[in-house]
Amino acid sequence: MNNSDANLLAIAQDWVRGGRKVALATVIETWGSAPQPVGSQLVIDADGNFEGSVSGGCVEGAVVTEAQDAIETGEGRVLAFGVADETAWEVGLACGGKIRVYVEPVIGA
Amino acid sequence: MDVAVLDTLAKARADRLPVAVVTEISSGAQEVVAHRYAGEHVLAEALENGFRFDKSGVVSTDKGEFFIHIHNPALRLVIIGAVHIAQALVPMARSAGYDITVIDPRGAFATEDRFPDVTLCADWPDEVLPTVGLDARTGFLALTHDPKVDDPALIAALQSECFYIGALGSRRTQALRAERMKQAGVNPSRICGPVGLDIGARGAPEIAISIMAEMTKALRLGVEK
Prior knowledge:
heterodimer; A: alpha+beta; 5-stranded antiparallel sheet; 3 helices; 5 strands; B: alpha/beta; Rossmann fold; 6-stranded parallel sheet; 4-stranded antiparallel sheet; 10 strands; 38% helix; elongated
């Protein structure tokens, strides 16, 4: 099975139906040599389980933490990662690219 | 995202309908826009471009930033001929996100042992293809070498919107085939053949790589003619 967008949305649907609290993270912009194209997604649950990819492994950890917070507070947010960003040293993109990621809780479960 | 949006997207995928999710980034407000209504939307131009090039992205307007997430129907690959090259091609195409249908009227070829986890039809292509439906998100390959099997399928493909049409065979085979297509009243110029990018491929797995490369190029950059 591959992790295409549609598959990930199906996973999100399954998780929601299974009673889990879920957030979605979506790459909305990229600059330079970002590894995953715009539209790539990560599905995250409240326990930090996740499927998919927004960067090929570089920033997923940070995104998962923000997603768990989004699930708790019900608030979406935009995250930016890249070499120009201060957090780049901690969770940056080794490839030198920059990405923006939109994190949103799935509501109405 | 409201869970209702997830349900709408699942239905659109099942029905092979192109839709987009438009998100106002500041508020998180979302709507699902069907391609057929994109022209009436305030972001019509960005939506139309997104659907055409299968490209999601952020649009900045005087009302703020919007993320347009394009959900085109899943890519699909229809292969005529349950042959060795098809066996090599299936796992590659699957990992690139294609739903795969293999059609071969020869029962000895079209077996589940040889093709696990694909939609397999042991019928004549001209009988099956009308139900499969060849749309703009479908790639098509004729691999049997047998005009009885390949030709009717190629005619159907040439009359469809599918984004890529490849056919196995030497230059001589292609020329003869093109003649038969013309006699049948269809223009053969969209057929890519000899099939695959010229990378000096040897053997089925390498030929499969060259075909995947050519099909990807057609999908992302269009077919040069």
